[in-house]
Each structure stands twice: as C-alpha cells, then as structure tokens.
Amino acid sequence: MLKFIGKRFLWMLVTLWVIITVTFVLMRFAPGSPLDVDDVGMSEQARANMMAHYNLDQPVIMQYFNYLKNAVTFDFGPSMVTRSREVSDMLASGFPASLQLGLVTLVLAVISGIILGVLAALRHNKMIDYVTMFIAIIGISIPNFIQAMLFIQYISTQFDFFPTAQWGTWRHAILPALALASGPIAIIARMTRSNMLEVLTEDYIKTAKAKGLSNFQIVVKHALRNALLPVVTILGVLVASIFTGSFVVERIFAIPGVGQYFVESITNRDYPMIMATTIIYSTIFIIMMFIVDVVYGIIDPRIQLHKKEE
Amino acid sequence: MKKKWFMLMFTLMLSMVLVLAACSDEGSDSEEADDETPDTEDEATGDSEASDNVIVLNNESEPTSLDPPIGNDQYSYDVLNNMGEGLTRLAQDEAVPEPAMAEDWDVSEDGLTYTFNLRDGITWSNGEPVTAQDFEFSWKRLADPDTASPAAQHSYWIAGAEAFNSGEGDEEDVLVTAIDDQTLEVVMENPTEFFPSITAMPQLFPTHQETVENDENWAGSIDTIVSNGPFKMVEWDHDVRIVLERNEDYWDAENISLDGVQYEMVDDPSTAYQLYEDGTLDIVNMPADMKETLVESDEAFVAPRAGIEFQRFNVNEEPFQNQKIRQAFNYAIDSQIIVDRIIQGNENIADGFVAYGFLTPGGDDFRDVAESHYPYDPETALQLLEEGMAEEGYDELPTVTLSYNTSDEHSIVAQAIQEMLVENLAVDVALENSEWAVFMEAQQGLELQYSRSSFLGGYNDPINFLTNFTTDNPMNRTDFSNEEFDALIDASYEEEDADTRFDLLLEAEALLMEEAPFVPLYFYNHTFLYKPEVNNVVRHPVGFVELKYASLD
Description:
The complex is a heterodimer.
Chain A: H1 2-29, H2 44-53, H3 60-73, H4 87-122, H5 127-141, H6 144-156, H7 171-200, H8 203-211, H9 215-227, H10 229-243, H11 247-252, H12 259-267, H13 271-299
Chain B: H1 2-36, H2 40-45, H3 48-52, E1 54-58, H4 68-71, H5 74-83, E2 88-90, E3 97-99, E4 102-107, E5 113-118, H6 132-143, H7 161-165, E6 176-180, E7 183-187, H8 195-198, H9 209-214, E8 231-237, E9 241-246, E10 260-264, H10 269-277, E11 283-285, H11 291-294, E12 300-313, H12 323-332, H13 335-343, H14 366-369, H15 378-392, E13 401-405, H16 408-425, E14 430-434, H17 436-444, E15 450-456, H18 463-466, H19 483-494, H20 498-515, E16 518-530, E17 534-535, E18 551-552
Parallel strand pairs in B: 1-10, 13-14, 13-15
Antiparallel strand pairs in B: 2-3, 4-5, 5-7, 6-7, 8-9, 9-10, 11-16, 12-15, 12-16, 17-18
Helix pairs in contact in B: 12-15, 19-20
C-alpha cells in the first residue's frame, strides 16, 4: 500500500509539472497583457515601470523558472489585478465560502441523488420512477445560473426566510447549493437507477431473496453497494469542481468564493492568479482521483490496488 | 466488511458535521458584525434603517488597491475618495476645487510655483498629524519608477517628475518641497491654472510615510491601513463589504451628517438590483437591460459623466487615410438612434470630443461654447464618400472591419452602425469581436482598422480629453499626427491666461473634429437609482462618488 501511495505521489508531481508548463506556455501565447486590463491611458513610462515591477521585462525562460520556484514554495506574490493583496491571501480568504457551499452541495447531491435513484429503480416504470427521472432531466437541462436567477426572483423575494443574495448565515447557502446541486443530483440519480436495475437482476439478489432477507437488507447491503461503484467514479470529478467554486452561481448570489478567480484571472491575464488556481485545481483533482481509487478497493474487494505483488 | 461500511458512513458523517460547524461558525460571525453594521434583516423590516444613518451602496467589486498611486480605478477611488483627502476637494454644487487638507494656497506671478498652507490639527486615523512632508513623500512616491504606479502621469505636472519616473532624473529634482510641517511648495512644469483641481484627485492623496515604508501592502488590510478623510474604515470583509464610519477627528466632522458608509461588493447587476429592491442597498446602478423604464422612475439619478463612447479609425490604413471618407462615416451614423433605442440612459449625443461638465473661465460649459459637429446627414455623407473615393481612385471601397470587445451592448451597437452604413453609404462593414485583453492589445498595437473605444475623463479640464490625440500619446491609438494640433496643445500648456488657454483648446477641438480620426457617438451618463431617503450624494462629471455631504432622511 505504501509503495502504491509513493508511486502515485511521484506521478502526481510529474503530472503537476506538465500542467504548470502547459499552462505557462498557453498563457504566454494568449495575446493581451495584465497591464492593459484597465484602460487608463497609462503613459509609456508608467507601463515600462510596471513591466519591470512584475518582472515581465525578463526573458520568458527566466519568468518560467521564477514560476516554477513560486509554485514549489507556494508563494505566488501579489496579484497583478488586485494589486495590494497577495494571491495566496486572496485564495485563503475565498476558500472557506466556496468550501462550505461545496460541502452543502455535495451532501445534498449525494444523498438526494442516491435516494431518488434507488426509489426510481425499485419502482421501475411506475409513477415514482417517471417523476424522479423527470425531475432529474429538468435538473440537468436547466443551467444552474438560470436556476439561480429564478430562485432569487421567485423564492427569495417571496419568502423572507431566504436572503436575496450575499453570504453570512447558513440560510444564505441553501438556494445557491440547490442551484449547484441540481445537476449532480440528476447525474447521480440516473446512474444509481440504471446500475440498480442491472444489479437487481443478478443471481445473488435472488439468492438473498431466497435466504429470506428483508427487502431493506437486500437493497442496502447487496444491491446498492455494487450499484454505487460507478457513482464513486464520477464523485471524484464532481468534488474537485464543486470545491473550487462556481463562477456563475457565486457571482449571481454575490458569494465571496474563489470561483471568480478561476475565470476572471484568465480574462484579466492575472498571471500569478492563473498559476495558483491551476495548481490548486489540479492538485485537488489528482488527490480526488487517488481517493477514488482507494475507495474502489473498499467497496469492491475484487479490485486490487497493488496487483501482482505476491 | 462492516468495518469498511462504517468507515464510509463515518466519512459522510464527518463531512456533514464539518458543514454544520462551518455554517454555524459563520452565523456567529455575522451576529457580531450586526452590532456595528446594519444587517440585511433589519433593513428589510424598514424602520431601523433611518436610525442607523448608514448609507449602503454597491461597489460591485473588491477595490484594486486603496493605496492612492496603485488603485487607479473606480472600484478603488469610489471608496478612497471618502476615506482620504487631498489638498483640495471638489465642491458640493460644482466641480470646482475647495480647500481641504490645505487651508489656502498662493500662486506665484508666473503661475509656476504653488504654495499650499495646510490646516492646523489635521490628523491621520492613527492620531499622528498630516504634514507637508507626507505630501512631499507621497507625490515623489507617485513618480518613483519603483512604485510602478499606473497613474504616474498625474505627477508629471510637477517639474522633474516625468524625468524621475523614466529613470532619467533623480528624486531630489522633483520640485515638491515641504518648507515646514504645514507649508508645501510645488514648482510646476508649466503654468497649470487647474492644478488645484488635480490635487483633489485620489491619485494625489497623501499617504502616511512611516506606514508605507513599513509595509508595501499596507493598504490591503484593515490592520495596517491609515487614512485622513471624512470617513475611516471599521470593517473590511474582502470581496464582501467595506464599512466606514464618520471620522470624528476630521477637520470638518461637524458638517458630516452620515454615521457611516457601507460598500457592498455585488458584481452581478441584476442581483444588485434585487438587493436594492429588497432594501439592502440604498443606491444601485441601473441594470443595462432595464434602463428604458428605470430612467423615468422617481428614484432615478441621471447626470452627465465626463466620458465618451466613440470609434477610432486607423488613419494610416485604407480607406481611412482619406479625411473625406472619415467625415462621411461621421455624417452617416445617427447616434441619436443608438442612444434612444439601445443605450437608453438619456445620454447626450457627442457632437464633439470634449464631454459636458467642463467650465470655461466665464462659467459656461465648454461643450455649449464649442462648435457642434457632424449632425446626422446621409446626403452629405454620401457626397463626401464619393469625393473621397475619387481622390483615392477607388472604384470600390476596400473592405472595412469594425472591431469591438465582446459584450452584448457593443454587439448591438455595432450591428446598428453596420445597418446605417449599408443604408446610407452602401458600405458593407464586417464585424469582429474579441475578448477585452486581446482587443486592447490589438488596438494599442494599431492593428485595428476601425474599432470601438471609450474614454473617461480623470481631471477637471478639457485638456484631459484633447491631449489624447497628440502625436504618440498612449491614448491616441489611431496613428493620428497633426503638427498644427500638437502645437495648439503645447501652446495651451504654456499659456498663463485662462481665457486665451480656453480659446486655444476650442481651436484644437475644432481642428481635431475637422480631421476626424474618430466617430464620436455619445457622452456617458451616471445612471443610478437612489432610495427616496437618500440626499446630496454628489457625483460630478469627473471624479468619484462624494458622500461627505450626503444624508438620509
């Protein structure tokens, strides 16, 4: 197991290096510079001074090595757009909001997704099945920003219980989490349903029935367990994208999360921020992939992490 | 088996506990904040708001920086203008400078030397006195190449500052000197009769020397920020809000009616509008797609803003090397339609380049005194186009591409103009849009033949607009170069007499319009909604929101 983790860790470093390098190259091929973003008619001289201040006047290869150094030390320096703040401070102050929203979303998505999926499978081709799948289709086909706007317009203005927007109490999290979760709920529900349907026809389910186990035991202990495997796979991807915030939903609800940095840093050509967000996103993604692999082994002991070791 | 299930369940439980813990934690935070700031709930119920006497407005975004020479945009200076103060401040009724940190000032005979006398007893928020040395330090810092200020050119009025900024001169040669703690002497590059307007700009606000020298990022945190204006910071929740309260030590504190100011940071215009509707915000920008109805509402605040929407030609690229063809485009575009049907904020159409709001020495608006150019006139347009094409020997006009940065509004305006040009000149213009950073680089690199553009005035003088089109000015971006125009602008800089100077500026604008390196479309407006209880929030054509005089009923 340790050997497996060590090997994966090395691969993770290589992957990160490749990602950093590719991002750097793409970033520099994109036309435009962070200094042009606010069009204030800067004098030529002021522009040159800023280039020097942010080391943009150095040869590109030097800038690349600087970047690598910054990436290793996790010190990205000040943002080129929010100029009095360090990139790491900005991300650190934005992460709690995105993380909280992400966790609420995730719990909501996983629990309701699985419950809906199981219900639909157990009542295959009955009313409940149609209703849940209809909800799922709506959830996945209406983009979350439209849902967000509809929620503000029709729910928060009607019920004082839900604040219109902004962040602060747990009540602020409900509507944005709902908007963010509806897509994943739909995906998880549909996946759970089709896997359950498949699993429920297996011989061992019949055996379990013949043994006289209760329906609940059969579903939870025998069927669901196998049906969840593919769900776990997509969960890894989902977690990475949910925890790094959602630009659109955070913007619409005015939530001070990190989602904005992932998108705006690119349009602003805020090089240090682009680099930081890239590294964070890929790290979370890679770690989630690793966790998913480990969880596979737990759910299905037939999957060997360290094959052919004996 | 069981153990593994247990682990899974445990992880799930753990994450739920975390969520709950995190949320309840947040909740208690905001309760603490409730004591000092108005809460959304309080406001939704109505009554408590007035007694709070704190005005809540939307800053849209986190300030770029509250460090005077670094911020250089509206997100920063709308806040800084009320937290800090320069030697002067623009008056409540008109955009004319009034004494602020300076009690008064003297100008030498030749108009080159200004001596500012600072008030007694002015202090920083840390209790230390504001001194002439702070101003000297701050202005030299603005010019210092190591500060890398994007606003450095606002120091160039001071003799020696431009040379210092370019690394050619020394700091000692920047002629701003603290004679003593309360006397600041500035020697100008040229006689600059509007310099007291310049000193009202946030770029030239003083900074506390010791604070700045201790920490380069002093303005990024409430723990280190030091200010000297009508309000001081009491809360800064990054990307959420900034709360200021009345600075009781401010020299004019007795004339400030508000207890405080709260800037929310809500980026999305329609969410901000919803927050205005539910009473969270007292002031909000009108969302673009609702302007048509909102400008007519009782809560509308619509006033000229010193800025212009226009289109640049590259005057060295075919077919726009020809003046008559450029003029033909000017006559063929009906800006009134664009304002009435698309922009819908009651904007004035641009019949010149200098916006409304700049007063001549006689007290008239420069725009009213200046000539009006290019009324919508399709017949003249067609005639000029034919003449121009004959001059160049064109049978057919070379392909014209209109470029703009990607946005719904720009796209609609571009399509309307495309339609007008087909109809009036039978010229089929191609449209091309690109993302802002890409667009900017192309425009600055003179790669665009015909492109949308905008300009926002920074200080209170028409030269601010006109100087853009001198040869090689970074805002020129048309490759336009005219010796006569450059000479007029230079002469205006050197002119001591205000009336003569304005005559030179009027002449320069007329010449510029005749040469037509651009198509002016319309002048900007401030378009806000103010709750009925909001009074005296000052928005001049130039400058930033002024809350010193504001009050709530």
